[in-house]
Specification:
Elements (H helix, E strand, L loop, with lengths): L8 E2 L12 H8 L4 E2 L1 E2 L6 E2 L7 E5 H5 L8 H4 L5 E4 L9 E4 L10 E2 L2 E4 L2 E2 L6 E2 L9 E7 L4 H4 L6 E6 L8 E9 L3 E12 L2 E12 L8 E15 L2 E16 L6 H6 L6 H6 L2 E15 L6 E16 L4 E24 L2 E23 L5 E24 L4 E18 L10 E19 L2 E12 L21 E14 L3 E21 L2 E22 L4 E15 L20 E10 L5 E9 L2 E2 L7 E2 L2 E14 L2 E10 L7 E4 L15 E3 L4 E9 L1
Parallel strand pairs: 9-13
Antiparallel strand pairs: 1-2, 3-4, 5-12, 6-7, 8-11, 9-10, 12-13, 14-15, 14-39, 15-16, 16-17, 17-18, 18-19, 19-20, 20-21, 21-22, 22-23, 23-24, 24-25, 25-26, 26-27, 27-28, 28-29, 29-30, 30-31, 31-32, 32-35, 33-34, 35-36, 36-39, 37-38
Protein name: TonB-dependent receptor
InterPro entries: Beta-barrel_TonB, Beta-barrel_TonB_sf, Plug_dom, Plug_dom_sf, TonB-dep_rcpt-like, TonB_rcpt_CS
Membrane topology: Multi-pass membrane protein
C-alpha cells in the first residue's frame, strides 16, 4: 500500500519530502512556503485546490519503496473508493472498480479510463488492458474517482493517469533490482538514464517468473519501457516513448465452486489443466508527444500513438474457446490551454480534439474436451473509431471562488466485417453513437489550506463488441444502447495544523440503461435491463504523528442498489445490491522512517461482504488482511545498496482474491465457478543497487 497526497496545499517536513515533487512544489519547499500540488489528469492543468473533483496523487517513493511492483493495487490501495480483485491471475489481469464502474466485468477492466504518458490503454469500445504498464518506470499516478466523460469520453467512470520517468527527472546513473519470494516468485529489473545537452533518456527492462499458489497459474512476463526527450528551443519539447510487452505464457486456473474451494483452494479446475488454459501476448507501443508554449499565448500539447497487440488465449472450457486476435490501435489527441479574461475576471480554458481507431482481426476456434482444435468458428474484423471535441474552462469569480464548465461531443462508430460465412450467418453490421457529456462545478477556498467543491456531470459507457451479439441472430443487437450516468458530488479537502490532511467526498450516481447479461441456453447476451443507484462517502486521511511516524487511512462507505432490474434468471431484482462491490472498505498504513533510508510499514485492510450475482443468492464473506514491509539502505560514496522485504496476508487469512461476477448463470448456483482463492501467508525480499 502507499502513502497518498490527498491535498493540494500542504507543508511537508524534510523527512517526508519526495524527490518526485513537481518543480513548482519543490521551489516552494525551498522557500519554506506552502506546497502547491498541480494535477493534470482532468486535462485542464490546475492546482488541486481549484479542482472540483475527487482526485488523488501518488508519487514515485510510494510506488517503489519496498514494493513488488506487480500490480496497480500496491500503489493505489489507499486511494478511497477503489476496489481491486484478481491480483494473482495474470491471464485475466487485475480487476478494478470505482463507485460501481467496472463492477460488471467478470475479469479485466471495464468502464474506467487508463492512460500512460498520454497514451490511452483504454480502447474506443471501452475495454482496457493494463498488462504492459511498467511500474518500475512509474513516476506519478493521478486518479479521478468519479465519471470524467467530459475529459475522456466513453468508459470514463474513473481515470487512472500514469506518468513514467524522464531521463532528466532522476540523478544520472542506473539501478539493478533483484527480487524473490514465495511460490517461486522471481523478478529482475535494470534501469539506466542520462542527459546529453538538450537530450535526455531513460530505459527500464524487467523480467518476471512466477509459479503461483494454485495449479495452472504460472506466469512469465518481460517489459521494456524507454523515453527520449529533446528540448528543441525555448518552450518546445518532443518526447518519444516506446513500450514493449512479451508474455510467453500466463496460465489460468479457472474459477472454482464454493465446495471445490473449501476442499482444496490450491487446485485448478480439471478442464483448465486438461486444456492448458492460458494466454500469450506480445505488444508494442510507440508514442510521441510535442509540447509548445513558445509560439501561442498558451500551451499546446499533441500526442500521437500506435499500439500493436498479438494475442492468443485458451479459455478453461471446451467448445468455441480458443481465441486469437491481431490488434492495431492508433490515434492523435490534441489540447490547447490558455489563460485569459472574461468580463474582467481570470479565465483558464482548454480545448482539444481526439481521434482514435481500433482494428481487431479476430479468430475463434472450437476445441474438444481433449484440447484438440476441431474447427474454426469465427473470422471477422472488429473496428471502432472515435472522434471527439471538448472544451472546459475555470472562471475565478474571486480569489476564493471558482466556477467550472465543460462539454464534450463524441462520435463513436463500431463495425464488424464478418469473413466467416460457413456457419450460414453474416454477422456484419455497424452502430454509430453520438453522445454529449457535460460537467458543471464550483470550488471555494475556505482558507488557503481548506477547499469545498460541488460537481454535477454526465457520463456514458457504450457496449463492447462482445456485448453487441444479437440474440435474434446476425449482426449487432439493434436494441442495445450506451448506459447513461448522472454524477453528483460534494467534497472537502485540506490540512489541520501542519500534520493532518484530509479528503472527503460524498457522491450520488444514477445510471440508466445499465448493460447487463442474460442467457439463452449456454450463450450469454446483453441488454439494457435496468437502473442502478450508487451513493457513498469517501474519506482519506494522512497524519504526520512526528518526523518519523505517519498514519494513512482510506475509508469507503457506500450503498450500491439495482433498480427496475431483472436478474440473470428473469426474476425481479429491484432493491438487490450490485454484485461484486463491498459496501465497506477500510485500508490503513502505519509507517516509520529512520535515518539513512530505513523504513518499516504495517498495513491492514478490511473488505466488507458482497454478492457474486445479480440475484444476490451467493454472499461472499468479509475479511481482514494484514501485511508489513521494511527496508534499509547502505550508502557507498555516490552509490547505494537498498535492502527490503515484505509479508502479505500476515495472519494467513482465507479469502478470495477474485470472484467472477455473474459467471455460469446457466448452472445451478452451487455449481457456478465464481471463486478464485487467494494465497495464504507469502514472503518476498530483494535488493537494489543504485549506481
Amino acid at each position: 500500500m502507499s502513502r497518498n497526497n490527498y491535498l493540494a496545499v500542504l507543508v511537508l517536513s524534510p523527512v517526508w519530502m519526495s524527490s518526485s515533487l513537481p518543480a513548482i512544489a519543490q521551489s516552494s519547499l525551498d522557500n519554506d512556503e506552502e506546497l502547491v500540488l498541480q494535477v493534470t489528469s482532468p486535462r485542464l492543468v490546475r492546482d488541486l485546490y481549484e479542482t472540483p473533483a475527487a482526485v488523488s496523487v501518488i508519487n514515485a517513493p510510494d510506488i517503489r519503496e519496498g514494493q513488488q511492483r506487480l500490480q496497480l493495487d500496491e500503489s493505489l490501495n489507499t486511494v478511497p473508493g477503489l476496489f481491486f480483485q484478481n491480483r494473482y491471475n495474470f491471464a485475466q489481469n487485475l480487476r478494478l472498480s470505482t463507485r460501481g464502474f467496472g463492477a460488471r466485468a467478470p475479469f479485466g477492466i471495464r468502464g474506467i479510463r487508463i492512460q500512460v504518458d498520454g497514451i490511452p490503454y483504454t480502447l474506443p469500445d471501452g475495454q482496457s488492458q493494463i498488462d504492459a504498464i511498467d511500474l518500475d518506470s512509474a513516476q506519478r499516478i493521478e486518479v479521478i474517482r468519479g465519471p470524467a466523460s467530459v475529459q475522456y469520453g466513453n468508459a470514463a467512470g474513473g481515470v487512472i493517469d500514469i506518468s513514467t520517468a524522464l531521463g532528466d527527472e532522476l540523478p544520472q546513473g542506473g539501478r539493478l533490482r533483484l527480487d524473490g519470494g514465495s511460490d517461486d516468485y522471481r523478478k529482475a529489473a535494470i534501469q539506466g538514464n542520462g542527459v546529453d545537452g538538450d537530450t535526455s533518456g531513460i530505459a527500464t527492462l524487467s523480467w518476471l517468473t512466477f509459479d503461483g499458489h494454485r495449479e495452472q497459474s504460472k506466469a512469465e512476463k518481460a517489459l521494456f519501457n524507454a523515453r527520449v526527450a529533446r528540448d528543441l528551443d525555448s518552450g518546445r519539447r518532443i518526447t518519444a516513448t516506446f513500450n514493449a510487452l512479451h508474455n510467453p505464457k500466463s496460465e489460468d486456473p479457472g474459477g472454482l465452486t464454493l465446495a471445490q474451494a473449501e476442499e482444496d483452494p490450491e487446485q485448478a479446475t480439471a478442464l483448465a489443466k486438461r486444456l492448458d488454459s492460458s494466454q500469450t501476448v506480445n505488444q508494442q507501443t510507440l508514442g510521441v508527444r510535442f509540447e509548445d508554449s513558445g509560439v501561442l499565448p498558451g500551451q499546446l500539447t499533441l500526442d500521437t500513438f500506435y499500439t500493436h497487440r498479438d494475442f492468443a488465449q485458451q479459455l478453461p472450457f471446451p467448445g468455441s474457446s480458443r481465441i486469437a486476435y491481431d490488434r492495431h490501435f492508433y490515434g492523435i489527441s490534441s489540447q490547447y490551454q490558455q489563460e485569459s479574461t472574461l468580463a474582467g475576471l481570470p479565465l483558464v480554458w482548454v480545448t482539444g480534439l481526439d481521434v482514435h481507431h481500433q482494428s481487431d482481426d479476430r479468430r475463434r476456434y472450437s476445441v474438444s474436451i481433449d484440447g484438440d482444435i476441431t474447427g474454426q468458428t469465427q473470422a471477422e474484423n472488429q473496428s471502432a473509431t472515435n472522434v471527439a471535441v471538448f472544451g472546459q474552462g475555470d472562471l475565478a469569480l474571486s480569489d476564493a471562488l471558482n466556477v467550472s464548465l465543460g462539454v464534450r461531443f463524441d462520435r463513436l462508430r463500431l463495425a464488424i466485417d464478418d469473413d466467416w460465412l460457413q456457419d450460414g450467418n453474416d454477422d456484419s453490421g455497424n452502430r454509430t453513437f453520438r453522445e454529449y457529456s457535460g460537467v458543471a462545478g464550483i470550488s471555494y477556498k475556505l482558507a488557503p489550506a481548506h477547499q469545498v467543491y460541488a460537481t454535477l456531470g454526465t457520463a456514458f459507457e457504450s457496449p463492447t463488441f462482445t456485448e453487441f451479439a444479437n440474440p435474434n441472430g446476425g449482426g449487432f443487437n439493434p436494441e442495445l444502447e450506451p448506459q447513461q450516468a448522472l454524477n453528483r458530488e460534494m467534497g472537502m479537502r485540506g490540512m489541520l495544523g501542519r500534520g493532518l490532511s484530509y479528503d472527503m467526498a460524498l457522491f450520488s450516481i444514477r445510471v440508466e440503461d445499465e448493460i447487463l447479461p442474460f442467457n439463452v441456453g449456454d450463450q450469454t447476451f446483453y441488454e439494457n435491463a435496468g437502473e442502478t443507484r450508487r451513493n457513498g462517502f469517501e474519506l482519506g486521511l494522512a497524519w504526520d504523528l512526528s518526523y518519523a511516524w505517519r498514519v494513512t487511512s482510506a475509508l469507503t462507505l457506500a450503498d450500491y442498489e439495482l433498480r427496475d432490474f431483472v436478474d440473470e434468471q428473469g426474476n425481479d431484482a429491484s432493491g438487490n445490491a450490485i454484485p461484486g462491490l463491498p459496501e465497506q472498505l477500510w485500508v490503513s498504513e502505519l509507517e516509520w522512517r529512520g535515518a539513512a533510508g530505513r523504513f518499516a510499514a504495517l498495513e491492514w485492510q478490511y473488505v466488507g461482504e458482497f454478492y457474486a450475482e445479480n440475484s444476490n443468492q451467493t454472499l461472499v464473506s468479509d475479511y481482514w488482511l494484514v501485511g508489513m514491509r521494511a527496508g534499509d539502505s547502505v550508502r557507498m560514496a555516490d552509490q547505494a545498496l537498498n535492502l527490503y522485504a515484505g509479508i502479505r496476508n500476515l495472519l494467513d487469512q482465507d479469502y478470495f482474491s477474485n470472484v467472477r461476477i455473474n459467471a455460469n448463470a446457466n448452472r445451478p448456483v452451487e455449481d457456478r465457478g465464481y471463486f478464485e482463492p487467494a494465497p495464504g501467508r507469502t514472503f518476498y525480499a530483494g535488493l537494489e543497487w543504485v549506481f
